[in-house]
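During the reporting period the student researcher (J.K.) took over the structure-prediction task from the postdoctoral fellow and processed the backlog of single-chain submissions. One of the processed entries is reproduced below for the supervisory committee.
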Amino acid sequence: MYVNYLCVKIVTRMSIGGMELVNLLVLGDEAAFKKVLDYLNLSTPKITSEDLLKQVGKFEVKKGIIDHAEIDLFENKQLAMAGAESGIGHECDSSTICARFAESSEAAYLLLREHEDNVGIIVIAAGLALNEDVEFFTHVSKMKNPPVVIWISGQSHEEVCKLNFYGVNIFNKYIPQDIDRVEIFFKEALYATIEELTRENLLNFSRVNMDRLLEHHFVNCDLFIQISPLKMVKLVNAYEKFSKEIFEKYRKKGIKYLYVHTNDYMSFTEFTYESLRKRLNRPGNSIASDISYTVESTSIIHDTIRNLKISESTVKILNEAAASSIATLKKNSNVKGMIEAMASRGGYLFSHCLMISYIGGMVSMKMEWNAVPTLQKISMAAIIHDVALDDEVLARIDELHTLDFNKIGLKNIEHIKKHPLEAKQILDKMSDLPPDVAQIVLAHHERPEGTGFPRNLNAQQVSQISSLFIIVEDFVNRIYGRPMLREELQQIASDFTKRYLQGNYRHACEGILKMINESF
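J.K. obtained the following structure tokens:
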């Protein structure tokens, strides 16, 4: 039997995040296709039955990235299409690469027409008729949203560039057919492309922990699940009622996160925070459960700073620091009431404090200030530094010298100026706080130029740990409520280099620059 179409499912050990399902279309003769499989460390298929219309073969794993692979051989296009839909559609297991094979451009056109939305990467291989690869690329270049093309080509790079190869899709990859160790270049190109497309795709979405949804029966925006690095599928519509069971099958597969459109993220956060505030105000809460509910809200913070690549081990350490800080501060009855009032109001003030606690801890660890007492100092200062403010508008003001006094009013300006001192006076009455916490709180509005308040301290006069806190708060103010795009983070890094890479701010500045650079 002559085989016209092959559909391949390859299960890998890649770990890009979420469900990894990448649809490949490989254009080339059967020898070229088998060579592509060999590049992925697979041996030649062993056909188990030659007298069936649908024949199934198993690839033996050579090494490394492949767990197993299956190939379905079909007599005609119709059977191949049906097999592609049933065998490598959306029901694929997680961590999967799915490939479709076409031995001619005509067959590839048909596959593209049927599966245009699901093809993320096209591999143009060898064994084609003269100029058939060029004709097919020209066809791809005219598509509304051209997939990425990895072209193993006999054409020179100059000839390929004349076709506007990189202008069609910036992620396209060219590999000369006669280069030594072409398989290494192919694997690098394939997995680099998957990572690039994953990063590009996720810029439009914000990740949310599935646990945040368990107390809700609906939410105010669409929820998506990532079925591949290149594709999100809507799981729940906005305001559509759902039960916890809808998430269970994904949780059993180890999937922890869903996604919302980035433009919906802040309204989603406010919506879910409302439930948390009600639970904080629930009558009869013990201090222990109250702390638990308070720290639970940090899942919102984790989602907001997801692009900073916070590790699970770091999360655990910072969770413990936040929980112990809140517990210690609540031993004082006056402070306990202030923290609970701030938490019950929710919104900017409380989430701002928690973000400083977490990001401050992250930067501290980048600086190798890993000691638990140091992390607790930063966390305590973060939780209480704005405790004397109850107005979100005033809490968002960083520097007095940029204010319009006529708009803000003298009373509010005085309140802003004094709130670091008022918070310090509260802390001075607590006997069991670590050293430096009150001084961090007092200095959190100082600036390296000496333009801050309340003491106009310059870069040489502020302690290093206070400098760390000041830089982190500036960073949080810059990212709060905004998607952290690469360009914005690069601008922040540039601004911080100019402003903070001096005096006692230098070490902390180097720590946050390291964190930002590692998030790219």
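The committee noted the following: The chain has three domains: 5-200, 203-263, 281-395+407-518.
J.K. will present the remaining backlog at the next meeting.
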